[in-house]
Amino acid sequence: QVRLVESGGGLVQPGGSLTLSCAASGTTTRAIVMGWYRQPPGQQRQLVATLSSGTNPNYGDSVKGRFTISRDSAKNTVYLQMNSLNPEDTAVYYCNAGIGVPLRGYWGQGTQVTVSS
Questions:
Q1: What would the mean pLDDT of 63-92 be, rounded to a whole number?
Q2: How far apart are CA 23 and CA 67, in angstroms?
Q3: I need a surface site. Which of 19, 20, 21, 30 has the fewest CB within 10 A?
Q4: Residue 7 neighbours by CB under 8 Å, 6+ apart
Q5: Among 57, 116, 43, 59, which residue's Cα sits nearest to residue 85?
């Protein structure tokens, strides 16, 4: 059974940085797409960034220029480097992966990121 396990969340001051990691286990099939979504308090889940094999990354407008997504495809692991964090970035961050043919989506359990002084 495929599992996505996120790590790296926590409390950070405004202007600070955090790096999130997400590793997929339970499969030897490389993910076709991996990415991050977030759900701020009282809001719907929203796109942060996705990265498909052989393509350029796709970022949500609010994080462009501040966040960077990267992947280690051999390890089925995706990273999110978050810089210049502000309180509006506070949310539960979820890892997502599309694996297999036909494509099936998987979600991690979420990791809390809180930006506060």
A1: 96
A2: 19
A3: 19
A4: 20, 21, 22, 111
A5: 116
Of the candidates 47, 13, 14, the residue with the CA atom closest to the CA atom of residue 33: 47
Q: Please give the Cα distance from 23 to 45 (Å, whole number).
A: 20
Model confidence at 51, pLDDT cuts 50, 70, 90, reads: very high
d(CA 115, CA 12): 5
How confident is the model over 63-80, as a mean pLDDT? 96
Helices assigned H by DSSP within the chain: none
State how far the Cα of 92 lies from the Cα of 57, in Å rounded to an integer: 21
CB atoms within 10 A of CB 81: 14
